[in-house]
Amino acid sequence: MSVPSHTTxxxxxxxxxxxxxxxxxxxxxxxxxxxIFADGFLSLDNLVSIILNKVVILAIVALGMTxxxxxxxxxxxxxxxxxxxxxxxVMLIAAGxxxxxxxxxxxxxxxxxxLANAALINKLKINPFLATLGILFIxxxxxxxxxxxxxxxxxxxxxxxxxxxxxxxxxxLGVPTPIILMxxxxxxxxxxxxxxxxxRFVTVLGDAPDVARYSGVxxxxxxxxxxxxxxxxxxxxGILLSSTVRSYxxxxxxxxxxxxxxxxxxxxxxxxxRRPSVVGTLLGVLLLAVMRNGLLLIGWNFFWQQxxxxxxxxxxxxxxxxxxxxxx
Amino acid sequence: MSEPxxxxxxxxxxxxxxxxxxxxxxxxxxxxxxxxxGANGAGKSTIIKILAGIYRKTAGTIRIFGxxxxxxxxxxxxxxxxxxxxxxxxxxxxxxVAESIFLRNEPRFGPFLNHRHMRRRSKExxxxxxxxxLSPDTLISELSTAQQKIVQITRALAQDARVLVLDEPTAxxxxxxxxxxxxxxxxxxxxxLAIVFISHYMSEIxxxxxxxxxxxxxxxxxxxxxxxxxxxxxxxMMTARNTSEMYPRRAVALGAPVLSVRDLTCEPYxxxxxxxxxxxxxxxxxxxxxxGDKEVLKALFGQLRTDSGEIHLNGERxxxxxxxxxxxxxxxxxxxxxxxxxxxxGLSVRENVSLASLSDVxxxxxxxxxxxxxxxxxxxxxxxxxxxxxxxxxxxxSGGNQQKVVVAKWxxxxxxxxxxxxxxxxxxxxxxxxxxxLMNRLAEEGKAxxxxxxxxxxxxxxxxxxxxIYRGEMIADYARGDIDADRLLAAASGAxxxxxxxxxxxxxx
Amino acid sequence: xxxxxxxxxxxxxxxxxxxxxxxxxxxxxAGFAAIALYFAATARGFVSPYNLTNIVEQSTILGLLAxxxxxxxxxxGxxxxxxxxxxxxxxxxxLCAAVYAVLxxxxxxxxxxxxxxxxxxxxxxxxxxxxxxxxxxxxxxxxLAVLNIAEGLELTLTENTVVPVSSPLxxxxxxxxxxxxxxxxWIFVVATIVLVAIAHYSRIGLRxxxxxxxxxxxxxxxxxxxxxxxxxxxxxxxxxxxxxxxIVARLSSSTPGTGQMLLPVLAAALLGTVFSRRLIPTIGGTxxxxxxxxxxxxxxxxxxxxSYWVSGVQGALILxxxxxxxxxxx
Lengths: 328, 509, 330
Known about the structure:
heterotrimer; B: alpha/beta; six-stranded mixed beta sheet; 18 helices; 24 strands; C: mainly alpha; two-stranded antiparallel ribbon; 14 helices; 76% helix
């Protein structure tokens, strides 16, 4: 057929565009809804608290997940990275090594998780879902063995005084340090994924791994970097988590897994090219955080919040995939 | 004459503004083998998909054994005895032969499957029609391509097919297998079945078909007796042009050898392959399915580890352990499976074209977007890629334009050697000519090309020299003008005595 | 003399693959047997009839849920990332348990509570079906969202507390015995037989596997793929509902945290593939895998090894199995 085939996709394009707007419109409607019905939703204190308590840690984890999903994989072991990093961090501080050594130790633990994932995926050719699932199981055992069955470790005032507060509870030029760290991560991942040669290769890898291979992209190397980066970001999130609550609670990181995946795919649904993107993921994180906070303010308890968020994610995915599926 | 088994009249199909089938008739009588030919995009697959109930016709009437069918669905059509043997071997890889033959038509024993009956009948049918002793418990994934094709046909026969529609049934078969398939088809025809036979191979059409419907641009331009009118006339009807216009001419003086291969061996695929490839040369490479020709390309691109032998690139010994190494030495490959290996369909033209040469448009690891757009736009104009702009997604382009995107990618990184694996598969005639022109241009610019194709005419017309691989051995090395398609075919089938026997070279599904 | 029969290009590799597949299967059986023998030799009381039935009993709940997962895999393929999966299965069982327990607590009889629990499970399964078939959401994501919904509803119903219940039926399920075997054991045996019959000896099963094995081939054969995918999810949900009653019976309560079973359930369904000739999930294979996991947990217990190790061993098993099968398939 000599007719340029892009004309055939014209109606499809409209439907796709519609689905983009539908998700964005839903987001704005939700914010408007809470602004009207939830007292204090728009107050500065509440907004800062949304970001500090709900956004920072999830955003950092979700950034890592975005990299992994952009490369065509998935990482179910972010919880392990969070937990092991947090565990080593807290243990080192409890042993008197101070915050800096603790943080380095925590990140090193997360690095191990990332390297293990990379080795399983690249060397043993196990698909990312199953590889990271295996690591998830093993991580659970590691934590239980290390904590005598899953006992939390709480830091006493004497232990965390001085060094510990530096990370989570300080400000820099009036901005809380966690927010600065998050901003740095956002900029770094944005540049890496959307502006660099590395990110371009990762994107091609996600769309068509064989094309990348036949075009001279070092597939194994890039996959490894992506999984290690995801683990390190999750490790950072783990450190921020324990330095906020001054403790380590075993197996608490898994709570972020579903939200991180959800946020990334909400972001993919919003993105005009249907790709995982940093901006999209951040909107996804915000959407989840706003929902949690708003539902809390209008008096829903934690349990109903979960139902609400499940339904929301379901609808967002339904709109985005449903309209796209129809258009093809 | 008897009542037609299939009678499709004035069938029309449009996709939005695109007319896939303008107004076509297809009438097939019982007891005949009816050929359906046409260039890619002529509407062959569209009319078949309408008959199969996969597409819904925009207009026209469809009668099966005299009965007008308004709502054509796969189930409705199958119930009337019309069965389709699809080109891709549509079988469940994890099912057994018996299960595949009886899928959706399973004999029962009470509420349960009658496994014994399934096994026995399968054995019987395979033996009766194909003289084939195959355990009904064999898994589909363990069968050869030809055996899978046979299971597909047996499935139709098990359901008492009255009409068989075979879409490129010989595509993945070797000479002998084609012969025995034709024997079966003739027997079925003599039993009174109506058979629709779709093939790219004109020699097969003339050998087996009693009548042929020729499609061009969505219109049936004629129904002829192939033995009467002959191949050249049918091709003329298909393309509406003289065959000689298909292949643009070129005169290039060969330069120095670029790629020298000596005694390259990679068991069990091929042995002792040696040749020199010169700058400005188009070297043909062909062979039957499984002959090892594809593996030669793979070895040259670092996808296969060789056992022994040497590859020299510009006089220097090289050893490619991965495609990464091959690409960085200036070897480019245009893979056969475009969707899986050639283009990232979900990404833009820009991202695809610049993929292999990102370092040229980036600094310190970051992509310079405006440089990139500039370079890519230049190539889009240069290669005449039909796209609204560099940011159009590749999946929205036509097959020929996608192929040009792949070429543009390699052009952009100054590759010296181009390994082209079936570059003209599934592109329409117009795009084919453009790809040939592009190949000539590359040669004129001093690049060296290896052109692997199972379309022997293409090889004969386009190549300066042609290597033929037969069972892993390089058995012939012809210069241009020394060969015709028949000689090539005889060599590829490894049987010079059978010279001139019509048989296809492989085209994988 | 048949030309076609002798033709074929994939021959040499085919033999090799046959042997490697066989090796995987034999290896799997040998591994299971070796571990059982090891426990028999070192763990006192392992081979006592009481302990053996105990293993089966311990494996029942895991096994039934894994059967649900197996049906979903059968109908949607085992590529867990792009194919199908039901992440909501365990959470669904938790929700059904909550429905059952709360209804009993509020004075409704089993005649209402049991159908309500099973229907709840099927409804959640249908929701997965809608998401996957109608909305065409990737199953991984769709069932993830449904997992959140199911878990949230469970928490809402029980307010994250233990809901203790008792009824004659529950006593019978928990303590009843018939021919020397407990009720749970009988249920496991009957469920296995029924599901083997449906999945491997009926038209429905054959077609379900065809849909999961090759979508286009199934469609070309005239099978309504969507209906089978719906069916698989709904059946899995129904099994979750059924299992929830056993969960409540075993614990005499609905307890938060049933969702934690997801990973062992996945492990059992995936491990089961190595016991099948075709290296696909089968009811029989899943049954063996569930017993295998139950044996491990039981043996560890008897040997005094901390239960912390169980999940780690499961994880390592998954990795070994997947790595070995992917090499065998090559």
